[in-house]
Amino acid sequence: MSSDIKKVVLAYSGGLDTSVILRWLQETYGCEVVTFTADLGQGDEIEPARAKAEMMGIKDIFIEDLREEFVRDYVFPMFRANALYEGTYLLGTSIARPLIAKRQIEIAREVGADAVSHGATGKGNDQVRFELGYYACNPSIKIIAPWREWDLNSRTKLIKYAQQHQIPIPTDKRGESPFSQDANLLHISSEGKILEDPWDEPDYDLILSRMVTPMAAPDKTTEITMDFEKGDPVAINGEKMSPATLLAKLNGLGGANGIGAIDIVENRFVGMKSRGVYETPGGTILFQARRAVESLTLDSGATHTKDELMPRYAELVYNGFWFSPEREMLQAAIDKASERVTGTVRMKLYKGNVIITGRKSPFSLYNQEIVTFEEDTVYNQRDAEGFIKLNALRFRLRQP
Question: Is the overall model pTM greater than 0.85, yes or no?
Fold first, then answer.
């Protein structure tokens, strides 16, 4: 292996893959490894990651709380676009990668590292997302992608390697090696094991950790309001909150009411299909609420143009092009459209459902005097005759 690599910054979760990678880097490259663990709201695995890195002899350990930056500068801008990949996926894993990559490059500069490394496989999307982010932030950076170099090409081989090197192996609720999972404040994804067969029904009691199933949710509604300013949520039930605090609150409300679990098959950027179960309780509520306030405050042209731009925006985020000029161009248009998306939405949460029951805004374009079915003096219904005939003119001209 290259002898000019003396120090590597590893994106380190403390899980099986990155723990094996840590030891493999030390053995294969003979280099110093610096670990970087981003706290994006994944839960209680942060401190165990520190302990495991220390146990494996790491001196420089970076563990940073990036939750507010993550939600404010990545999640909320993406939600302004109402982004859904292939009509279902709220992009919970995708949106976390650019921030991790950016901060990893910054740390590499701080510590004088020669290279960065990640634990993404050669079959998945994350290798692309991480590495596009690395190159966008440092075009000359060296990247070590172990899954594309080593012969530990299966879960079984990883576990065997970990056992041989006394690396603790995490287990699931049954004491077995866990599903492949990725978690942050926006969502939790689960892949692998029984989920590899798209016909097998997921064992939600085993998989879900942030929410209950709709069937297990309470037989009563939870009513909430959410306030928006310029496209972003700022308060729940009238209480102002920071971005990360607000999303965490929504996760609790959604999780308790069985909201936000999806079982999907998606098209990966590299060309294959994959099946996974995603938990996005807070994001699911936010998505529905945001659309409700937009319905009042955006005119038809802006609404429909946003809906046309959304699939392209979602694809860019999914494929790892967050730092691309085309995503920034789309973001500028989306943010312009969000300037008057201000108001309050009222909802009922019930057994997996987000039920909109009211919306209001100081910038509402809804005019009750015009839309009323009662008699009015502000709209001449006869005007519609000419409107229809003009729109039908091309059809009438085509007739033989």
Answer: yes
